[in-house]
UniProtKB/TrEMBL annotation:
Entry-linked InterPro entries: D-isomer_2-hydroxyacid_DH (IPR050223), D-isomer_2_OHA_DH_cat_dom (IPR006139), D-isomer_DH_NAD-bd (IPR006140), NAD(P)-bd_dom_sf (IPR036291)
Domain D-isomer specific 2-hydroxyacid dehydrogenase catalytic: 34-302
Swiss-Prot/TrEMBL keywords: NAD, NADP, Oxidoreductase
UniProt keyword Oxidoreductase present: yes
GO CC, any one term: cytosol
Organism classification: Bacteria, Pseudomonadati, Pseudomonadota, Betaproteobacteria, Burkholderiales
D-isomer specific 2-hydroxyacid dehydrogenase NAD-binding domain: residues covered: 101-275
Keyword Signal: no
Transmembrane segments: none
PANTHER family in the record: 2-HYDROXYACID DEHYDROGENASE YGL185C-RELATED, 2-HYDROXYACID DEHYDROGENASE-RELATED
Protein name: Lactate dehydrogenase-like 2-hydroxyacid dehydrogenase
Length: 307
């Protein structure tokens, strides 16, 4: 029996590439062959799948997405055409939450700047004590989005003797922390505002100038969700004018981040969208992408499909 024909349109780890090649007839955009033969598609949350791509694949039956964010995948079009969609939630929750905590500490204690201070030999030349940072323990922590990742961030923060509140569209029954009614109210209360909501039209620019003003001159913004959730121009203005104390970001409105006013600021910590970028998590995500496809072609339910 011939193997199912699967098209990959994203940058993927080598381990996933090898697994796909062993299980399927894998094709790429450089050599797609006869589009009518392609029944499966692999993409990433960053790359997504748009309507134009679906239009070029008349025989498509299943998509397996490497990642958890589906804001760049045209789910409505896929559902209209009866195309099943699998993705990789849960296996990356711990690493994303871990990185959120790392960003909080890095921004508060100015770890990147202190590293540069030593590497540039300024410490040896001057003998000066590096700039003071801010204590993390015992602070008020606000989480926007108490879903899978938000709950693990909260779990990590308990170890910092933090008081925790959250904002979400509805009450999270399994969460013991206090829910507030608006994001602006949460920002006004907390010292650190963690963004852990899904990217969508509803959440686009939900962190706006008003929320940042409420966060205030002692407040930090930590974003490990989607860049679209934050009004980046408003954030730049808030950082430049010291309306907030600092920001630590793993995601941006346009990726990869090019020359930007963000990169010129000293009160930022900027990472290249690496929240799930650990050997363990990327391997688990790769395995799940392949397993979702194998289950589909075997007539079974995939490990994870969006609601």
């Amino acid at each position: 029996m011939s193997k199912p024909v699967v098209l990959n349109i994203a940058k993927i780890p080598a381990v996933l590439q090898q697994s796909l090649e062993s299980e399927f007839e894998l094709r790429t955009l450089d050599s797609p062959g006869d589009a009518s033969e392609i029944s499966g598609l692999v993409s990433s949350a960053i790359r997504g799948v748009d309507l134009a791509t679906l239009d070029r694949l008349p025989g498509l039956k299943v998509m397996s997405i490497f990642g958890v964010g589906l804001d760049k995948v045209d789910l409505a079009a896929a559902r209209r055409r009866g195309i099943r969609v699998g993705y990789t939630p849960d296996v990356l929750n711990d690493c994303v939450a871990d990185l959120a905590i790392g960003l909080m500490i890095a921004a508060s204690r100015k770890i990147p700047q202190a590293d540069g201070y030593v590497r540039s030999n300024r410490w040896a030349e001057t003998g000066n004590v590096f700039d003071l940072g801010d204590r993390v323990s015992g602070k008020r922590m606000g989480i926007a989005g108490m879903g899978r990742i938000g709950r693990i961030i909260a779990k990590r923060l308990v170890g910092f003797d933090a008081e925790i509140r959250y904002f979400s569209r509805s009450e999270v029954r399994e969460c013991s922390h206090e829910r507030v009614s608006t994001l602006q109210e949460l920002a006004a209360w907390c010292d650190y505002l963690f963004i852990a909501v899904s990217g969508s039209a509803e959440t686009r620019h939900m962190v706006d100038a008003g929320v940042l003003a409420a966060l205030g001159p002692q407040g930090y913004l930590i974003n490990v969700a989607r860049g679209s959730v934050v009004d980046e121009q408003a954030l730049v203005a808030a950082l430049e004018n010291e309306i907030i104390r600092g920001a630590a970001l793993d995601v941006y409105e346009v990726e990869p981040l090019k020359s930007s006013r963000l990169t010129e600021l000293r009160n930022t910590v900027l990472l290249p969208h690496v929240s799930s970028a650990t050997n363990e998590t990327r391997t688990a995500m790769s395995n799940m992408v392949v397993e979702n496809l194998k289950r589909f072609y075997a007539g079974e339910r995939m490990l994870a499909e969006p609601a």
